[in-house]
Amino acid sequence: MEVVIVGGHGKIALRLSALLAERGDSARGLIRNPDHAPDLTEAGAEPVVCDVEATDDISEHVEGADAAVFAAGAGPGSGPERKRTVDYGAAAKLIDACKATGVDRYLMISAISVDRPDRWSEQMRPYFEAKRDADEALVASGLSSTIVRPGGLTDDPGQGLIEVGMPLEHSGPVERDDVAATLLACLDEPRTARLAFDMVRGETPVRDAIQRLVTAG
What we know:
The chain is built from seven helices and eleven strands.
């Protein structure tokens, strides 16, 4: 399996690349800063320098992949305009590239509560609006999409134990290690296509949680 990851230097993206490499699959990570290339190489991914925010058509970098993952984000220090061009705009460009190249499988890293505006703070509204619009564009695209909406992300070591729901009625923390493992499990389970789900730290092994989700769905 070859997976193209937009936002390839992100913390979840690097973890996913390493998981893919460990089992003999490959990742192609799109990065804006060429100085980040060695980190991707160390994780077992192929670095591809491409400023998705500034490039209208990224199809050439998606061609030949089996799946695409959107893992980019403008970051907490960015303003509303950049959240729009990255969290929504770059995700939309990846949708267009997948449709143009016949890459049907698309995984989106979204955010818990993105579909519940009553839970948004005014400070976070531009971020949630961009993520919501990206999710809606992906659903409308007709691609075989999976939208993963994690809670508060931590860098603590993953325990491999999560809770998932469509949606969950509560939020909570979740380790980036476990989000990456969940993305990998979704790539391996075709029945996660057309699903959007919340995830937080829990008590169920990742792959068991995904199997229960697709069975219930």
